[in-house]
Every structure is written in C-alpha cells, then in structure tokens.
Amino acid sequence: MTTEQTSKSARTRQRILDAAAQVLSRKGYAGTRLTDVAEAAGVQAPAIYYYFASRDELVEEVMWAGAHRVRVHVEEVLAGLEGAATPSDRILAAVDAHLRYELQISDYTTASVRNAGQVPEHLRVRPAAEEGAYSRLWRELFLAAQDAGELRDGVDINVFRLLLLGSMNWAVEWWNPRTRSLDDLVRGAQDMVRFGTFARP
User: Fold this and answer.
1) Per the confidence metrics, is the pTM higher than 0.85?
2) 135-139 long-range Cβ contacts below 8 angstroms, 24+ apart
3) pLDDT tens, residue order, the chain (201 aa)
4) Could you tell me the residue range of the domain that residue 73 belongs to?
5) What CATH number has the domain bearing residue 181?
C-alpha cells in the first residue's frame, strides 16, 4: 500500500469514527445503526467492516476516544496555565475545560458520557480505564489544593470530585444553549466548587 493509499485509508477510518460519534451521541447505543453511520460518513455500510470488525468494536473505539480526548484536553489546558496559577485556579480552569470540551467541542465525549450506562459491560473495559485515569487527575488537583490550605476543613475530596464529575457529565442531558449560555453554565459549576470546597479568604 502506498503512502497516499495509507493516508486515504486513515482519513476514511477517521471519517467513520467521527460519524459514529455523532450518531451515537444523538441516538444512543440501542439506536445506532451502521447504515446511519455510513450515511453520515459518506461511505457504503459494508465498507465499515474493512476498518472495524463489528458495530460493537466501532462503538468501543468511540467510547474510548471520548474518555481519552477529554482527559488529554484538560491536561493540555492545565499545562498551558501560567506558573502563578494556584491549585484553586487550576481546578476552576479544569472545570471550564471539561464543560466546553464536552458540550461544545467533542461529539466523542458526549457519546461516551451519554452511553456509559447503555453499552454492554465488555465494551466498558477500555473506556473505564481512561475514565479512571481522568478521575485520578481530578483527585490530584483537589489534593494539591488541600495541601496548599486552599480547601475548607472537612471537605471529603473523593466524594466531592465524584459529585462534580457526575454533575458536569449530566449536563449533556439537560443543557440547552437557547435557554442558558455555556458561559453561565461554566460559572455555575465553578461557583459550586468555589463555595462548596474553597476556604474563605
């Protein structure tokens, strides 16, 4: 296979993945059909089997990518913060990055969040490992703030971070940009952290 053919094949595979993420985020696991994915990707349905052995393999790849990409995005945002950013600043920046990526940037993450409880258990193994890594990232953010004395006494950071991640992920089900701006939603989530966990100055 020539370099040009390899590149074309990679682009087609990516187009199929993008289409699957779009369909899965809208229709859910039960409602996702390969014919819908093929139509959205601009390919014939049988062509999908050249890249993915089954519908479930395609779904698993989308679910994994959704969990992986939001983690990488948040890590990149945090890495780009100025050195003067406090641990508290980093938590608020992570909240902003997570919500904007989930709700505005990535069909993959929306699909992953919406279908986490719908897909069969065997499709959850690889995505769950990514979700675990992402959860640890948040634990480290809160531990750093706690070590810096920026959290109020008595905060259970394990409980709070799970509640926070759960509430941010649930926003994909109810947030409507026609009734509430994304900026307002981000501010609300940041205030939940700020007033729920931060020590008073």
Assistant:
1) yes
2) 135/161, 135/162, 135/165, 137/71, 137/74, 137/75, 137/94, 138/94, 138/164, 138/165
3) 555 556 888 899 999 999 999 999 889 999 999 999 999 999 999 999 999 999 999 999 999 998 999 999 999 999 999 889 999 999 999 999 999 999 888 888 888 888 888 899 998 899 999 999 999 999 999 999 999 999 999 999 999 999 999 999 999 889 999 999 999 999 999 999 999 999 987
4) 56-197
5) 1.10.357.10
